[in-house]
Amino acid sequence: MRLIFFGNPKFAIPSLSKLASSSHEIACVVTSPDRPSGRGQKLRPPEVAVKARELGLPLIQVEKLKDKDFLEKISSFAAALFVVVAFRILPPQLFEIPPHGTINLHAALLPKFRGAAPINWAIMRGERVTGVTTFQIKKRVDTGDLLLQKEEQIHPDDDYDSLYERLSQTGADLLLETVNLIERGEITPVSQDPSQITSAPKLTPEHGEIDWSRSAEEIHNQIRGLSSKPGAYTFRDGVKLKIYKSELIDPTEPGVTPGTIVDSEKGLVVATGNTWLKLLEVQPAGKKRMKADDYLRGYPPESGEALG
Q: pLDDT (tens digit, 9 = 90+) per residue, 158-169?
């Protein structure tokens, strides 16, 4: 089947590679333009653009998806199906072009965790199971009919990075299976169950700030769900302190004010709304990510000092 692939970040690379090595033909890869990145603000291409060039695939980098010339160019490829993995919202005049429609890979079990950050929110909300879904694109984001789904366990030691990597690989396999079934006419779309809808909105800086009055498990999940990007954080003496890794421990003293550093001899241990949380990896402002024990040697806490 002749395809056009739309994608931008690292998450889409396993899917692109899997399709490129299959019997299907990728007529073109569509990504966003190069963007300024890093301290030097040098222009960098999307990771999918780099992979497409490596694979020798035709590449279009486009800003305006409604541009007439772009739509005419895409139509000229006469692709039977468009495939979208972590790209942008496609306008109807684009996703309605191919005869077999446009399908998307979503990193959750739709209709759960509709939105821009499904992996983060699944961990932050304490889910034990998530997965990947292929579905037909419609005008309203993440509302199209379901094609295939596959579950993926969320392990207790998973963070955003580890789950992101597994779901990208699981999703690539599911996407290829979906395209194969569409080509053979052996797949039946199923409407989403509105009673199961949950949201996974775009993350803002406010989502990263830790409220130490919450339970230790909630804060632990927040840290896991935001590690390593964009990162959960608190404040110490008014200076931001990012937190990348933590573990739950039982308290030895009841009734400690949330946010208090309670036992620096055993590490960076902080009281929460119900128990204690040991911080394992942190990053003070202007410094590199480091083990909390190393951080404490350079910045020992005062008695009764509190974070936040």
A: 999 999 999 999
